[in-house]
Amino acid sequence: MASVTLLRTKGLSRQFGGLKAVNDVNFAIREGEIRALIGPNGAGKTTFVSLLSGRIAPSAGSIEFLGNDITARPAHKRVRDGIAYTFQITSIYPMLSVFDNVALSAQSALQRSPGAKPAVIAAKAKEALEHVGLSDRLRDRAGTMSYGHQRLLEVAMGLALEPKLLILDEPTQGLSDGEIENFCRLVKEISRSATVLLIEHNMPVVMKLADTITVLNHGEILAEGSPENIRANAAVQAAYLGTG
Amino acid sequence: MAFGPFLLLATLEGLLQAAVLTLTALGLSLVFGVMRVVNVAHGEFYMLGAVFAWWVASMFGMHPAVGFFVALIVSPIIVGAIAFASERLILKRLNYDPESTIVATIGMLYIIQQTTLLTYGPDARPVPAPFYYRIQLPWFGYSGYNLFVIVAAIVMLVAVWFVLSRTRLGLIMRATQFDRETAQAFGIPIERVYAFVFAAGAMLAAIAAVLIVPIRQAHYLMGLDPLLLSFIVVILGGLGSLRGTVVAALLIGLSDGIISVFFSPTLAKMISTLLVALVLVFKPEGLFGAKAR
Amino acid sequence: MTASRTMRVIALHVAVLAALFLVQFVLPDYHYLAMTRVMVLAIYAMGYNMLFGYTGLLSLGHAMFFAAGLYGAGMTAYYTDLGVPLAFLIGICCGALLSLIIGLVALRTTGVAFMIVTMMFGQVAYLTITYFTDYTRGEEGLTMPASARNFDFLGLHVDLTNAVLRYNLALALLAITLFVILILVRGPMGRVLIAIRENEPRTLMLGFDTFRTKLGALVVSGTISAMAGAAYGLLFAYIGASFASIQYSIEALLFTLLGGAGTVLGPLLGSILMFYMIDIASEYTAAYLLVTGVALVLLVLFFPKGILGTIRERWLPWLP
Q: What transmembrane ranges does the database entry give (chain C) (predicted)?
């Protein structure tokens, strides 16, 4: 497997007033890996992935995706390029059916090939739902499902976008142990077709899934390496113990 | 008339307009600021203030001043009660959802206006001024009552300012405006504050109307122009900003007389409405207000 | 499953149109004319519903689009000899252009600000018409000349004073609008519109250009409303400033709310019911707008989904 750089940031920064939420971050992610982004609360993780997905604009620095500069590209176009983002706080269409939720994603993915038939959209949507194990809930109203199922739906929506890079923002938050195990299997499976960038607090999950871990603290990269390296890193331990 | 005296007269007329407009717009601004409710029926509370003033004044046949000053107390109270009731019966049930409340207040506008047409009738009726006194300036005579309106409005403004910035009630209102959830957590009875604010906003409009009704007349359609002008003032002043509201009302009131000298009233309205819409699109925090939180 | 659903939907709409076609043979004269008007107003409300019901954008200035069609068509027919069919087209184009311009500006706002901005633009449109009173005759309005009532088109003689022709022209336009909207809202665009209504930030992050989609919805909505206006002016031979007033904007909202926002047939049902309610009230009192006010408050308080919206929720989930 050739290690092609999928996404790279150079000097990426974002300030809110005087606060440097993300400060001069040089970051690269290879195609096909599962990367975990960890760090104490307020380390700038969500701000960082929001910059990647285009939800907020950087104050300085640049973002490259597959060799193209996408720094100024609007969010919806980045999604079409293949950067999918799942929200930290579940963001689905509660009043629409489970199927329609995912069909919207499938439809978006097919914007790249115009004139797609409704049948193709339906097939893609069902495939994604099967992936996460929700194919028996097609007609249910999304808002009536349990929290765990809503998170799975959120992932299915990300999958149906057929992304090259799937950004998952704290996907296991609020899930039960059984659901988490199921979820880890799912992420492993997804990583066969897409690169995964995972923000996660649950350390066992991170250690189990990640190929590489990037630690963010005070908006800067504190450490980067394999799970074993990070586990042994004194600075990381200090950051976690020091700021809780 | 020479230019100097002409300008003085225009300024006095502008100040009168600004005084009434400030009070009316302040009511709208207060309601929006604290409750986040855009009250499209605000102009109708103004109209009701004038109509009830006529009603009260016509019951007291004695000296016009008795009727007027009774009206100045009674009319805002009745209007406040109507506003209070409609807040309890309608806005509260909508949970203050911004879009639903606009639709509901549009409905209230029609209900109030058309009920007035049914009962009070389509005629414009005068209310006698409490006193007639002409101040003789070297160039022209000027109605003392007009000056009284300006002074009364300033007194009201100071009173509102005092309540908002120096009393516990004002503190509660500001806390509610700043952060509804936190205020509630601190035991502030949000619902009662809302009902009170909505009634107080309507009463400010009613007071403005009682003050102006001896100069203009009471008519069931008289609420529409103040509504539009108040919107303009509140948007220019920055939604929910009281200081901005006062500055904008002064500016609009003073310039209104001058603009209509140079342009046809329709063209003036056209251009000002268009400009204000553009302000709302491109500079939603208003021209004079502090940036909204 | 979906095929049978599609058949059911088509059957329902064809049945409604067939009923409107058949009812003309039994309607007395007064109601014949009234229903002609109602059908044109229903087109206006259906256009409004595209924006309010499906996209979730509440405009308080839609009368400006109706008026753009009304005046675009009416002024052309009155002042030029381009002919009625061309005047009709020009009216529609005026509405399309106006809605594009308004959309580019107003869609930078959302929620309450959007409502107020559209209301103000609507007011500017109204004032513009009254300002150019030399040409438009303001509130008093213009009555179409005889040349716009009787003309030849593609070798056929068209007599717009003929009530039967007017009724069926209105019905034909209604049918076209109905099916255009049906195709739009059941297609990919409709799905995105509803997604924007339900959760706009998410829709953006699913890769949809929400601004452009909303702009598209506004232009479709404004153009349909303008077509209703153009048809109204030409069929009933009168254009006046009151059609641009804020009250006309609110009527579109009221028709849509009553029938059911976000249902294809709702605005039609709402237009019929509300038109007759106001019509009956105005026989008794000059304060007939009281009905409008009471209806708005009651609907928003107790019946926010409207008639067909409630029916869809309770009994007929397949209703588009």
A: 7-26, 32-51, 63-80, 86-105, 112-132, 169-194, 215-240, 252-276, 288-311
